[in-house]
Amino acid sequence: xxxxxxxxxxxxxxxxxxxxxxxxxxxxxxxxxxxxxxxxxxxxxxxxxxxxxxxxxxxxxxxxxxxxxxxxxxxxxxxxxxxxxxxxxxxxxxxxxxxxxxxxxxxxxxxxxxxxxxxxxxxxxxxxxxxxxxxxxxxxxxxxxxxxxxxxxxxxxxxxxxxxxxxxxxxxxxxxxxxxxxxxxxxxxxxxxxxxxxxxxxxxxxxxxxxxxxxxxxxxxxxxxxxxxxxxxxxxxxxxxxxxxxxxxxxxxxxxxxxxxxxxxxxxxxxxxxxxxxxxxxxxxxxxxxxxxxxxxxxxxxxxxxxxxxxxxxxxxxxxxxxxxxxxxxxxxxxxxxxxxxxxxxxxxxxxxxxxxxxxxxxxxxxxxxxxxxxxxxxxxxxxxxxxxxxxxxxxxxxxxxxxxxxxxxxxxxxxxxxxxxxxxxxxxxxxxxxxxxxxxxxxxxxxxxxxxxxxxxxxxxxxxxxxxxxxxxxxxxxxxxxxxxxxxxxxxxxxxxxxxxxxxxxxxxxxxxxxxxxxxxxxxxxxxxxxxxxxxxxxxxxxxxxxxxxxxxxxxxxxxxxxxxxxxxxxxxxxxxxxxxxxxxxxxxxxxxxxxxxxxxxxxxxxxxxxxxxxxxxxxxxxxxxxxxxxxxxxxxxxxxxxxxxxxxxxxxxxxxxxxxxxxxxxxxxxxxxxxxxxxxxxxxxxxxxxxxxxxxxxxxxxxxxxxxxxxxxxxxxxxxxxxxxxxxxxxxxxxxxxxxxxxxxxxxxxxxxxxxxxxxxxxxxxxxxxxxxxxxxxxxxxxxxxxxxxxxxxxxxxxxxxxxxxxxxxxxxxxxxxxxxxxxxxxxxxxxxxxxxxxxxxxxxxxxxxxxxxxxxxxxxxxxxxxxxxxxxxxxxxxxxxxxxxxxxxxxxxxxxxxxxxxxxxxxxxxxxxxxxxxxxxxxxxxxxxxxxxxxxxxxxxxxxxxxxxxxxxxxxxxxxxxxx
Length: 967
What we know:
This protein is of the alpha+beta class. It contains 32 helices and 30 strands. Strands 3-4-5-6 form a four-stranded antiparallel β-sheet, covered by helices on one side. It has a four-stranded antiparallel β-sheet with strand order 7-8-9-10, covered by helices on one side.
């Protein structure tokens, strides 16, 4: 702490290398980071923050080896244990916002409370509720991927309107449960707990409630602490929104007039006005950029719609749509004048098919246009120029009307809304009180007042035409309506024209609806809503839109206003009227029946939901299995491509000789990959890497990869674009604000812009990379993608499974040197059996069990002759069968202690092989045969009864035989 306060960065680095405690506090609860900020040393502040972040990341990475479970599993375990302790067994499993501090206390005790680990991060102080409250106030209701209820709850006015409706039980439940957004999901709870543990150190308060950023801003004179403020705020993401015990933010402390020598006095109101102008400029720029973004998205969407609607009127499209509508229902919505009218199921566009020729068209046929105009003309004549006379006594659906100012009558059918001059067939004439009407066509032709017989539609949207018409689709400036007699006409919203045929604008927008239906078919549903609306995601354009399955309307997300979203997310409200006692009793009884039916329906829906959940789980498992198989195939391809070439030497012995020779050669500073490995090496390496990869995947860890593989840079480039915009904004602000003649005020404003720039990043939902690469990325999607596949500082475990953990950029330099079989750095390196049995395996399996139990060339025990002659046979395990056969052959044919049968006639004695000569000599002696091998006098006693003796003499180059008779 003294080194930090005095600014001795070398001493601080030395002490950190020897395990100095970064959480040590003085009597005023100032940490080393506070003192580094006090001294203005950005180097020491960066050293302390890096030491904390590196220790925490390394601790989390090594957690599976320490505790047997990974960090994510501990977060899930915390979620379940806190819910179990807070909720009864019969309550729905959910997590409330107020349990976050207890959760972080439990997790802190689980991670750092066992005292057996002396690492630096394990000395982290106990959690403080004030910082958790700050995180809740800062990020609650602003996290991505919130549900519909959370978004509805964010709008208090809408919530207040919704509470007015519903039954008493529902209102009581809402009052008891509170804000639906206060119930957090596992991902939201994990975000709060992880953010707390990672950012608690740099936001530790002292006795004044001030963080290190507060201290640096308070001690700043003009720009003396600019670099440490930039280090804390921009590089490491210290929050500029925290307040001390005096409710002062770092920016307020920076702008405060302290009266110190060299400190600018300034004008607080002027500085506040400058800040407001800066905020206003940022807001105007954001609005402009948002308008450009919306215009671009709308343009891309419209281009896709135009592309799909290009063949809207093609013959193939018309025939395909005719086939579709006939397969869907096959029933025309209207018939008349030789034409059948069909409606497409999704776009609700109308097709007209000729009943005789089968020709299909989208424009209204001329016959139907004339018929429609005539019906609308009758409607105008009946409403504006005629009056009701009487109704038929037997068939009251028929009425008689009289044209005003004349003696001309016509008939009207109220059910079919059909008008005619001549009396209908089959209708008794005597049941009419009026007798002056046309009974046949001749009377109609003989009528003198032909002007009264004219029926012509004016084409103007009069009240007689529009008021009782059913309003339908909106197609540009035209509104599709269904009026008198089932006639479909189109009403212009501006000049109030009414036409029966389809205008060109209507045809154009029907083509758009056709394109919307095609996009709807290929899209994925995201959210269901009320009144037939659903939200969909189009994977080809990456756009979202709302589609109404009942009307076929489509609204792009850029046109979806808050009012529209609110209307489709809550049921349509109905007017309330005062009810009598009987009506209340009937309503209550009806409500009880509805409740019973709803309970039964909920039970059925729960069963159906459980089945769907099981099906979804099965599909999810199937998708995960396919994804895992794909990843393993990529891993196998990567291992093969990294270590195998076409020119590679497949001879294992030659490879080992080459490897042994490299020991004598002077090693280079950085080892490169040795390609041309044998297939046995690649198989052994892939098996090991697959085992380590699966274990790391289960623990949510990353493994080292081929250094030649280039990491993607999409999010990094996006971050660079964002930073470029911020730098341009900084230059613009500096040009407009640094106009004061006093350099001290200009310098202080430049330091102030560092904090406002950080505030802007937080406000836009950006966060610094948790691996420590000092990049700010959008928290919702880009940050996760960058930390997973892009960041050069992401920690990776050895892909062969040893305990070494390094950053991606470090693995690039030393990975082949680390994995080399000649080195002893990796305990899991793939090595070749020194007995040359042809096996490659991890080094930790070499001695035991391979060389001891599994190697085919391992030495086996001495094989001794089982007959006791002392002969010993030695060799490896691969020669065991040959040794056994040799010993067996020896025991059968060569051993002196084997038992043999005497071949002397009529003997058959069993004797040892070594006694066979002596035994044979006995037989020879008993038969009178004797041999002498020395040149001397020998005595031979002739047995009794021998009549003849035979002598043989060897030597002098020949053999002499002769017989001597016994005397």
